[in-house]
Target: Diguanylate cyclase/phosphodiesterase
Amino acid sequence: AAKERGKGRYAVYDAELEQHHALDAQLGAELRQALDAGGFSLVYQPIVHAPDGEWASLETLVRWHHPERGTIPPDTFIRIAERTGLIVPLGDWIMRTACRQAADWLDRFGDAAPPAVAVNVSARQLREPGFAVDVAQALHAAGLAPDRLTVEVTETAVFEGGSTLDTLHALADLGVGIALDDFGTGHSSLGLLRTCPAQTLKLDKSFVDSICGGSQESVIAAALIQITDGLHLDAVAEGVETAEQAAALRRLGYRYLQGYLFARPMTPDLVEARLHAGHRQAA
Ligand code: C2E
Ligand code: MG
Ligand code: MG
Ligand code: MG
Model:
């Protein structure tokens, strides 16, 4: 009987797995169509100065508007885009659009414009030969100064080694900022801080979630500030949702904060409404 049940379980498992793969393949094909059909858009979430809430930069986050399924979150489709290689042309579109957007805001709003944008870049893009040249071209085409752009990469992507570190050094040589995203969740190695030309660490949301009350996470978050201060790196805490978390992070010495407490990711229209209202500040 146990064997029967076991067999049954595998059958169910196989069916689910197959469905999953079928959906992936379908989504992969639909991603490709969406890229040609203008099915993606970008939203922007402020990274704010901890003391006054002023926008230090805006992180670019991609959205996929699926004709039947509605808006699909990047956590679902980036993975598929990476596997199918579509992340390369999609990522190129994201980079060019974000650079143009940042340059446009600087033209129109001057000193009141967001000072910089951050763009997430996946491991697959970093491995692509000529990636740094493509970024230089995107900046040039947009007329955006390199120091107005930061690329966000995960520790795991950097850890993969190979040409990735060379690419990051080439980007840093251009004057583009490098941020280590989701710090503390991947193949965290402090050795990475010696070899990777990052100026910024982004403490992952999972630490911020339990930052209050002397937790293990708060001890690690505090130790990271010692390291970033000592190495003259910037520390950003991501996913800040409550005033208590913000207060705890400020006390620890985090100079930059990001999260729903300050602002959700915003469409360009909403960003501009904020800029017109004369405050680059979080609500
Ligand atoms: P990430 O780069 O770590 O981005 C932070 C994610 O947390 C975003 O989700 C953001 O909307 C969300 N977030 C920000 N503040 C809060 C908060 O206070 N509470 C909660 N619950 N969530 C918050 P999103 O936009 O769904 O993106 C998820 C991930 O997908 C990103 O994580 C990034 O790894 C990836 N991604 C997004 N856009 C791009 C892109 O253009 N290119 C690539 N390669 N990856 C992207
Ligand atoms: Mg990010
Ligand atoms: Mg992040
Ligand atoms: Mg994260």
